[in-house]
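Page 47, continued from p. 46.
Same chain as before, 325 aa.
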Amino acid sequence: MEQTSNNILQYRHIKEPTIEILKYIDSRRNGTNKSLKTRWKKFNKQCMGGIEPNTIYTFAGISGSGKSAVANSLETDLFDLNRDENFIVLSFNFEMLASRQIGRKLSYRMKRTTSELYSSNTDDESNKINDEDFSSIKKHAEQISRYPIYYVDCPGTVDEIRKTIEHFQGTLALNKWLLVILDHTLLTRGFSGDKERETLYELEKVFMSAKKIGTTTIIQISQMNRDIESSERVINKYMHYPMRKDIFGGDSVFQASDYVIVLHRPELLGIKENEYGPGTIEHPSGLPVKDRVYMHFLKVREGEPKILTFVNNLKYNSIEECTLN
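Result:
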């Protein structure tokens, strides 16, 4: 049967994408097309200057590794460090209330724990937020409230996520750079029983399609399988580092993502100091453990895998770049 035109996929002669990549290279070299800088210089170097357009970033990690805190502080940094760029954020904040995310931003900015901000120790008057503190909090909150960030609190289905992104691309983000953040993938409605991996596969297809529309970047938070926490892995330093199979739905995530980054805190697993991993030239017995957060780049579309070292400052919902490896 002769195939009708409606069944033919769109095609282009090679000349068109050639012109596109030349324009991209030229715009990058003259500075009219830039990545969004983060405050981590080594991260920027590893990621083509920072957060790129039309790219999918996946951050994964075990509970307590800091992946949500990093994503939350990251979106704030991007506005503070890239004031000349025209972008907005659509955050599918399925794990916690948006108001608590603001609390984390305040903690990050003011270097006060959320416990201190919320006056959790009612028996200690010195621990309570006084009027002067609250005035400072309100000042920071007012600044934060001006960011063009839009939160979706209620978990939705894959199709609802797709329609919401498409709505933003055609309205609030029209002619702007749209950053889509999802925290986290397994909280998408439809994850149950045997359909979990199927739902994740459909979600990744939505993201792959969305990143090609206009100027769109996807940052998704994902979970790890429990195997990385097993005693067999902990006692065998050659199995300390996270691997592709450790990420839930690793095949789908790797296929869709341009960057796959695992945040790992070996001290959470009881690994001894200076015994994380098989060792390096600088650290023959293994990497430092105390107060360290490691970013394992398992996939880098335009580069090589790498491990970056950070200092744990998660009590203030941030991590700091480590000058010493």
